[in-house]
Design goal:
Number of domains: 2
Distance between the termini: 31 Å
Strand content: over 45%
Number of helices: 3
Order of helices and strands: HHEEEEEEEEEEEHEEEEEEE
Helix content: under 10%
Strand order of the largest sheet: 1-2-3-5-6-7-8-9
Radius of gyration: 20 Å
Structural class: mainly beta
Largest sheet: 8 strands, antiparallel, barrel
Length: about 300
């Protein structure tokens, strides 16, 4: 957590020994209330490329109308965005550029779709036909993996979400902090106040922001981040991870096997509530810290 939020924020809290309390109401913002099935609930599909000549690894069309295309790292004309293996605990770096393209899609026919900013795709029983923008049509062999195995209902989870509140909660021997923010930038500014930024990377690296999250029936948890080269901001990117169900419309990120409760989430009153749990014990005693993000459904 310290590496994600920034060490300065927690140090500032301990030094001041103050308590900040901000109301965290489930009625804040738009989107609170019953959740209807996403517009593409019946169209959701994922394929994994088995053709050795394919420049792609997988393509997923989600319930909310998002697509996530994972490309081979050596595909021509792929922009230099980072790929994060563990976006929560500090900066992740990659030697090559981004291997993720994403956006929204629309249905154009039976098993045929237009992917915004990419091109057209059409599925058959064991293949996919791809026509990139300004490119020729190619057919590739694919497999279709099964959906996430679970005995729990996950209909409310599986959709696209947009963060409406970031909340920092810290309890330590020196003091407590409970403060909410309406944007990631506001939270970062508070956490980094008083000291220069120190968690920058070298080469290509990414800073996760949790501004948007996509959860799918195929076990994909994709969150937004900001990509950099050294200290130069390149743009937004998407970080695909995995999740599993832990209860009725509850789940956790599969990232740290030794800490299964590090990142958990559930739907409450029509909102997704994601909690990143962290605690440390140092010479001054135990410090407990949480980042709590509240999301409304992101309808395209």
């Amino acid at each position: 957590m310290k590496k994600f939020i920034g060490r300065k924020g927690w140090a500032l809290c301990a030094v001041l020994g103050m308590t900040f309390t901000v109301a965290c109401s489930s009625d804040d913002g738009d989107g609170n209330g019953p959740l209807e099935p996403p517009v593409y609930s019946e169209e959701a599909v994922k394929c994994e490329f088995t053709d050795p000549d394919a420049p792609y690894e997988s393509l997923e069309l989600t319930e909310s109308g998002d697509y996530i295309l994972v490309v081979q790292n050596d595909e021509p004309n792929v922009g230099p965005a980072p790929f994060a293996a563990s976006p929560l605990r500090g900066i992740s770096r990659a030697e090559s550029g981004s291997n993720v393209k994403h956006g929204t899609y629309t249905k154009t026919g039976e098993k045929s779709y237009e992917l915004t900013g990419f091109g057209a795709v059409a599925f058959t029983e064991n293949s996919i036909r791809i026509t990139p923008k300004n490119g020729s049509t190619t057919t590739y062999a694919v497999d279709f993996p099964h959906q996430l195995p679970t005995s729990h209902p996950i209909d409310l989870l599986c959709r696209s979400w947009k963060c409406v509140q970031w909340r920092i909660v810290v309890h330590s021997p020196e003091g407590s902090l409970d403060k909410s923010f309406s944007s990631f930038d506001a939270m970062r500014q508070f956490a980094d106040e008083g000291e220069p930024e120190d968690n920058t990377g070298e080469g290509f690296w990414v800073q996760p922001t949790f501004e948007d999250i996509i959860l799918s029936r195929y076990g994909t948890l994709a969150l937004t981040g900001r990509e950099y080269h050294d200290n130069t901001f390149l743009g937004a990117t998407l970080l695909p991870e995995l999740w599993t169900a832990t209860g009725n419309n509850k789940g956790r990120m599969i990232l740290f096997d030794d800490d299964p409760d590090y990142c958990t989430f559930e739907v409450k009153n029509g909102r997704l509530v994601l909690t990143v749990n962290d605690s440390e014990v140092d010479e001054d005693g135990r410090e407990e810290a949480k980042l709590i993000c509240t999301y409304a459904e992101n309808k395209h």
